[in-house]
Amino acid sequence: MAQKFQNFINGKWVDAKSGRAFENRNPANWEEVVGTFPKSGKEDVDEAVKAARAAFEKWRLVPAPARSDIMRKLGDLMARRKEELAREMTREMGKVLAETRGDVQEGIDTAYYAAGEGRRLFGKTVPSELPNKFAMSMRVPIGVAGVITPWNFPMAIPTWKIFPAVLSGNTVVFKPAQDTPKTATTLVEIMMEAGIPEAVVNIVHGGGSEVGTAIVGHPDVDLVSFTGSTVVGKQISKDAAETLKRVSLELGGKNAQIVMDDADLDLALDGVLWGAFGTTGQRCTATSRLILHDKIYEKFMSMLVDRTKKLKLGDGLKAGTDVGPCVNESQRKTVESYVEVGKKEGATLVVGGAAAKGDGLSKGWFHEPTIFTDVTPAMRIAKEEIFGPILSVLRAKSLEDAIRTLNNTIYGLSSSVYTRDVNKAFTAMRDIQAGITYINASTIGAEAHLPFGGVKQTGNGHREGGWTVYDFFTEWKTVYVDYSGKLQRAQIDNY
Ligand code: NAP
Ligand code: MG
What we know:
CATH topology of the largest domain: Aldehyde Dehydrogenase, Chain A, domain 1
Bound molecules: NADP nicotinamide-adenine-dinucleotide phosphate, magnesium ion
CATH architecture of the largest domain: 3-Layer(aba) Sandwich
Number of strands: 19
Helix content: 25-40%
Distance between the termini: 79 Å
Number of helices: 15
Strand order of the largest sheet: 14-15-16-13-12-17-18
Structural class: alpha/beta
Number of domains: 2
Radius of gyration: 24 Å
């Protein structure tokens, strides 16, 4: 019998009101059921929002440094359970252990950062234009935050949202992806153990079209923080407009790595292998395009093909595995369909290109690391987010040419340039249209204490991470104190 998990609403573990449930399976072995989870609906969301709203009235009054103490405990508890959490995550969504450990570590870093922020949350005092008048502006919590997350960073992304939301004094209704409900459930358990009061965080499992839409449309949810696909992000933006909610959207990417003719090629090779095939290409920051300078093209391609063929596919829990499975059947089908698209468009398939079979791979959603060359900017495989282990290789004659190709996308999340020429590096830093640019490092590697997010259709201008996410989860309230004892009129009495 598969283990049964529940929602956490108003401080109690409960089933979906409908009594329905869904299964979560291991993508490296689909016969293995990780657990069953409630298939919730609008009525469950209503309960959770009601509880979160009531809890907000108390939680907003708890001093932020006291909320910090809970964040520190949270970080300690996660650190103690890091290995267990990483293993659970690999079993649930497939990426290799080294990466799931990193995912948990990002959550720990986010907890400790939040703990520090509770003793800052700086406001401003500003001189008033009038005598005997004091002027200041301070951050205040907003209310109930809806948090909707994807499956590819099952720990890091929920913590990026929930920890700053809660530290700022908001309460939360959390809907994790159906592919990673277990990691999300354990995170909630740990939050309760750390001392977050009941009903401050509620988790409602289930589908995006039921639970997600109910959260976004709920008149008593004040803000929504979403990470996921651009298609769903656009829908959420429209749905949230009905109630004029504040919405933070972190969406898709089509990230590129440029390798110039003066680059350290070994370094650039490690970078692209990690960027393109880490997490089986299922990262918002994955390297999906490689732009090579003509002069090093032949040499670099032969190095790249050679190393790609040596990547070991397998269960992420096993030592020696480089690349795990796709997260589920539909994701692998998407990858397979893009292989067909690439062939039809006239690109040249140089490595991979098929669902992987063989020892230990027959019951998992594995797909070979795949590379297409002769890709032109107009091809779909050069433009669309694939979210799988496919790398499209393009050529460039110069830095300007390479940057033009890199920018030729509706997305703008991460980017990378390998060069030893400081002038080229700074030109790239200025001209690349992306929220994140790496010099001599892969498109992957965001740190918890810096702003994270993208330009163009990767998002709507908000930033997660670091100090910037606190702008999203707080409202600026301006206060004037007039101690002159008389009516003083701004803009009038002094002029
Ligand atoms: P997704 O299909 O957009 O789903 C994301 C979340 O939204 C899931 O929890 C999903 O529920 C829910 N959802 C689906 N439809 C909804 C609706 N109409 N209203 C409200 N919620 C809804 O994305 P995914 O496949 O999980 O993740 C992959 C995508 O995320 C990629 O495009 C990737 O680039 C992007 N991503 C972006 C970042 C970033 O920071 N920019 C980071 C990671 C991933 P279900 O449980 O039903 O799926
Ligand atoms: Mg699963």
